[in-house]
Amino acid sequence: MLRRKKLVVNGIVQGVGFRPFVYRLAKHAGLTGCIRNTSSGVCIEAQSPDPAALERFRLDLVQKAPPLAKIFSIDVLDRDPLDEREFVIDSSDGGGAVETLVSPDIALCGDCRRELLDPRDRRFGYAFINCTNCGPRYTIVERIPYDRPFTSMKGFDMCPECAREYHDPMNRRFHAQPNACPACGPQLSIQDGDGRAVPCDDPVGHAFDMLRDGRIVAVKGIGGFHLAADAADDKALERLRRRKGREEKPFAVMVKDIETAERFCVVDEGERAALLSPEAPVVLLRRNGSGKLSSLVAPGNDRLGLMLPYTPLHVLMMERGPEALVMTSANVTDEPIAFENREALSRLKGIADGYLLHDRPVYLRCDDSVTVHLHGKLRQLRRSRGYVPAPVTLSSPGPQVLAVGAEIKNTLCLLKERNAILSQHIGDLKNFEAYEHFLMVGEHLRGIFQASPELLVCDMHPSYLSTQWAVDQSELPVLRVQHHHAHLAACLAENRFEEPAIGVVLDGTGYGTDGTVWGGEILIGDASGAERFASLEPVPLPGGDAAVEHPWKVACGYLHHAFGKIPELDVLCGREIAGVAEILDKGIRSPLASSCGRLFDAVAAISGVCCDSSYEGQAAVELMHAAGRLEGEPFSWDIGPGSTGAGLQVHTGPLVREVVAARVSGTESPEISRRFHVTIVELFYDIVIRAADASGIRSVALSGGVFQNPLIFEGLTEKLERGGFAVLTHALVPCNDGGVSLGQAVIGREYLKGRYRGIIDNG
Length: 763
Ligand code: ZN
Ligand code: ZN
Ligand code: FE
Description:
By secondary structure, this protein is an alpha/beta fold. Among the domains are: about 5-90, Alpha-Beta Plaits, CATH 3.30.70; about 110-165, no CATH class; about 190-360, DHBP synthase (Alpha-Beta Complex), CATH 3.90.870.40; about 370-500 and about 735-755, 2-Layer Sandwich (Nucleotidyltransferase, domain 5). It is built from 21 helices and 33 strands. The strands form four sheets. Strands 6, 7, 8, 9, 10, 11, 12, 13, 14, 15, 16 and 17 form a twelve-stranded mixed beta sheet that branches. Strands 24, 25, 26, 27, 28, 29, 30, 31, 32 and 33 form a ten-stranded mixed beta sheet that branches. Strands 18-21-20-19-22-23 form a six-stranded mixed beta sheet, with helices on both faces. The radius of gyration is 27 Å and the shape is globular. The chain starts with a strand and ends with a strand.
């Protein structure tokens, strides 16, 4: 007796070779039926006289799915059998609303790599080889459905041979939208530093010659441009740093292969898997002290951000080029990655000595993702290419919400059903190009996911440009959410944790419900609301936010607060102390801030590690590298009632006075740094114990940019676990402000369900 089943598959199943996979699977099992895209997902009908064959088929769908497919659900229904002979791919999906999700951009696969390097293959040496298992996706999709006319490949007509592959269900390139070959696809070209075309037969070879001569080459990639330079060449990197206008921020490095990575760095199993993954992120690794690299790659940093070649062009370059290339986002400080030929030529003028270009447009810019493998998991620090727009799965569905994120490290987040779709890293919205990108990505996300959100969610900070945008639009209602509440909610959401937790949220800056800067918060609650159980005591920040670039000024605020004046200290010699002291004495132009990030800045300055900062977070990074490990006696702190209410406050006076005493008595910076890190771990453990005693809650969520610091992250996590706490941490989204949009969005859903209470400030 014939049986027929209808299976509706939801997930990332478009443009990832899913249909040919199902076709082959059905043929192999002797099933008849069809597969097509519908408005509710990929729909399969399968028919057989053998019920076991149908069941095996369903299991194989999940277990043997192609590497890029991600199946979230399969609904199975019984159907009346039909009289049919074959299994067919029905491509008559037309323009119907397709609920399947667009895949991220994926690194070159093993099969394509082999063909790329095989002189007998027709795509030998072709920089745009790809198949259904690899290649660009998100960055070339203008709108859905994901079909060639709606991608930036629309200008390239397939030659007969490519078309044959594209239409053959048994071929690896069946419906691979970017399919192309040297006869019909995109081509490389070279331009000189002034934007003049340089005629040459071998653009990769030409670029290689320039790199070998110490030149800086702008290389067009998947989500924009990189600036490439030989990572062993001091002079080249000195020039690059000077021209880019940022002095010390670490550069990412691309190495030829995993063996080369292992020569420069210690690579454990998890790190190795991350480097070799189809997402191919930058992975922060500990150096092993060997291998020849310029000290200018990552000054003051014992970690190195490495990645492997992820496009065919990279592979061709690394086959010939230096074994390690600096590959840094092609931008001037704080601008987003340059992504179009003309834009790159104007913005990179004076920085690049030459351009390795191609004629396939980048529709959507997308930086490299940056990750670190800590405490058993790969952690996102910047979630972009390779991961976006794959959703983070939530514990339950709900109304559609769009959250617009924070100000720096901005991302957006769209909630639809159980999917939280975060945008790529957009950057600092104060930069005009980043702000334009923010607007474009917001539109694009709604477009490709066919979303019509009911609510917009933004930060409470009145001067965040994302907030201003949300408030100024008149289409949707707006909810303003407290920054650290969003951090806590993000951590709970990605862990699908549905109960209240103790949130330890440590970061640089967030707008508090009282209008002052917060940033060292112990919250108790969940996405619907939280109590501010304890916080760092507010300390004046002389000159306001601008002090962040000058850790020594931040230190003056803490010193003045601890001593009532600014004591004489060697690290402050030659600084304009008088002016700073005056505004602190008078209590003018020195807004109060209770920020954990600023406490790191202050101690970095007092201990002589870092007095001026050329990029965000530099003082904290250098303080951590000075420390190297957790060791020594903690400094003192004092926890008492807050000035106005029932919440607790951490008084940092004792800590600052002891750090000063250590410096004055000649204690070396690394020792002060180590003891300070121990102090932070012990101090927040102390508060968590009090919060647990007060609330009976034994689950702790860690969030905020301070947890990018592996010493603090691992130190506090391990101590809490030893203490019997369940510790919830970030892995899928960044703990820094890149993850805030997720928290905002899930808080927005609580609001729509009528459960939102916000933050209760006891401070
Ligand atoms: Zn491939
Ligand atoms: Zn072709
Ligand atoms: Fe934050």
